[in-house]
Amino acid sequence: MKGGTLRALAVVIAFGYPISNLANTGNLCLLCPDTIFVLLIAAFAWWTARFKKELGFHISTPPVARASCLAGSANQRTQQSSIAEPPDKADKGGQSFKPENQEQAEPVIESPETQLTESEENSRQEPSTRNDQSFSAAAVVQTELKEEHAALIKEDVQDIPSLKRSNYFVRHWRGDLSLVISYWVNGLLGTFLVLLTANTLGAMQNNISLTLVAALSLLVYATAIVASIWQLVGVWRSASNHVSRGGNSGWASLAKGAVIFGVLNCLVLFCRTYIPQSVEMVSIIAGDKRLPPYEIRVLAGGTEVEFRGGLRAGCAKELERILSAIPQAKVLHIESPGGRIGEAKRVIQLVRDRGLTTYTSERCLSAATLVLMSGKERVVAAGAKVGFHAGKLPGATAEQQNEMANLVRKTMESAGVSEQFISRVLVTPSEQMWYPTFDEMLGARVVTSQSLGERFATSWDLSGAKLDAAIQNINAYPLFSTIRELEPEAYAKMMTNFVTAIRSGKSEGEAVAAISEVTGDLMEKYLPAASDEALLALREQWVGILSKYKDQNSRACIAVFTQAKINYSRAFPDWDMTNTLRVVEKVMRSGASRVVVPVDKKLADEDLAVISKPLGDKYGSDLMLLQNQARWMEHSQKVCDILLTMYQQIETLPDKREANLIRYLVTSKDE
């Protein structure tokens, strides 16, 4: 392949690939690894052509060489004007010129026959004299040319700044280097060094703090900007000097075209990436004030740890310090709106290394969901909000977006999450939030189970003023005001047990049970004297809960009737608990007279027999489950169906008989 063909191929590769990349992706990425690889191939083709033609770089003739050429041509003219041969060559007569200071040879005695006459000797010496005169004139001319040559070299040297100063970077900046060196060597080598620094920082970021990563990133950005300006200006100036140095004007124009594309690319990269990301880096260094502050608390005697707040720079290191101090910790509560994905990666590693169970009781959004999914067991409380979307970094390049997407994908895949769920997360814009249902998360293996507040320590912080505020909120409900009024001792016991359960690290269910157990005991005490109207309102509450939740959460429905230790507000997040508390308060107020309303047991048995017949026809032997409450939770769905059907049948009775049967059922110790 000819050198010209190779050079043409190099140009096509060097300029064609970035332009096609711009057309396909909308981004003229001269700093991308694939572009650099292609440019290296183009450089190889170019250098091959040069070596094939010249066995080296094509560098235009420097001024010193020009001076040598001029001197050579002048010397040639001098030789043409001279008559005699150089003194070291023989003349036509066969005699040689001798230096003037050469010692004379010893005289030779010749025979008379060989001696010449004086006239003949003079005639023999005339050509030699003429040759001596010509040689002297030539020596004078050659001396003058040497002086002219030296002056020319001195003048050219004075005109070359690069020969005055040996700083390589300054020579490139001024355009004194050849176009080949400026474009291929300094351009590609500088880009390679910047990329190498950035990749080294990327490899180190898991082992250094996020704040240090931010500071080093700013340094890399500044270095890239300075290096780009140095590269582009040097190439432009070298291209401007290329023709005057004897180079091809076509290559100079192509180099300037590449510089123009480079400037445009740098401007786009500066506005789209460097400025937004520099703002983020400065925010990280300044303390990430835009994210909510975080708090880390030890719960349940050190067996559980709660992280609450934004994933700010430095939070992973603080969490690691606390976990190292309590190696018995097995559960991490994560209550966070999200934050820095770099900190999320560090927390993920902590959770995996220690085999922690992760749990959220309120909300877990954005990057915090990656922490939730890294747990050995992943539990969400009923009613907790878990929100997903694609990662976000202001000014993120396509490579950075892919890196964030790969982190999300790998974290989910390691947890066994389905591909369909992962795809849905990655296509959700970062400005939006997707809140899947518990069944969707369970089916996709995002979580492993649900809690009604019965498993883990409550994360409610009721210290100091927060405790007073919580008690005030409780007293705002009419039921608790009535209890405090009618049963002050029971009220004091209830509140003491509630606060103690929270402060000792008990579960939410146990804390709520401190209230529900006292309330249940008071209901048994006041129901016999409650009004018919209050009993009918109570039956209406039961039917409403069973109708709405028997299919969604049958275990929670059973918990209502068995007074299990759960957080009812979690079990029934969209239920009007205030109305339920009013019904209980109505029962207590109407029964405050303590005058027991008599039960017509005969009529109650007759009505019970009437409603039992269709129940038996529908459920058969399963109807016997009502008499064994210990098995209700095991068969929660079936028991809920039976209870709902029974209360709906009771509702068909006249009000008086309905109230009589309900009073009989709730006050009879045999049932």
Sum this structure up briefly.
This protein is mainly alpha-helical. It has helices at 3-25, 33-54, 63-81, 118-158, 161-164, 168-174, 179-204, 210-242, 249-285, 315-325, 341-354, 368-373, 398-414, 419-426, 438-443, 465-475, 478-486, 488-503, 508-526, 532-549, 554-562, 568-571, 577-590, 601-619, 636-650, 655-667; strands at 295-299, 304-308, 331-335, 357-360, 363-365, 378-381, 385-387, 449-451.
Per DSSP, the total helix count is 26
Rg measurement, Å = 48 Å
Trace the largest sheet across and list its strands. Answer: 1-2-3-4-6-8
**What oligomeric assembly is this protein in?**
single chain
Main sheet specs: 6 strands, mixed
Helix content: 55-70%
Number of domains: 3
What is the number of E strands? 8
Beta-strand content: under 5%
The residue-averaged pLDDT reads 78
Report on the architecture of this protein.
This protein has 671 residues and is mainly alpha-helical. The protein has three domains: 3-62 and 168-285, no CATH class; 295-451, 2-enoyl-CoA Hydratase, Chain A, domain 1, CATH 3.90.226; 465-667, no CATH class. Helices cover 63% and strands 5% of the residues. It contains 26 helices and eight strands. The chain has helices at 3-25, 33-54, 63-81, 118-158, 161-164, 168-174, 179-204, 210-242, 249-285, 315-325, 341-354, 368-373, 398-414, 419-426, 438-443, 465-475, 478-486, 488-503, 508-526, 532-549, 554-562, 568-571, 577-590, 601-619, 636-650, 655-667; strands at residues 295-299, 304-308, 331-335, 357-360, 363-365, 378-381, 385-387, 449-451. A six-stranded mixed sheet has the order 1-2-3-4-6-8. α21 crosses α25 (636-650). The chain is elongated and about 145 Å long. The N and C termini lie far apart (102 Å). Mean pLDDT is 78; it is low at 22-28, 51-119 and 159-164.
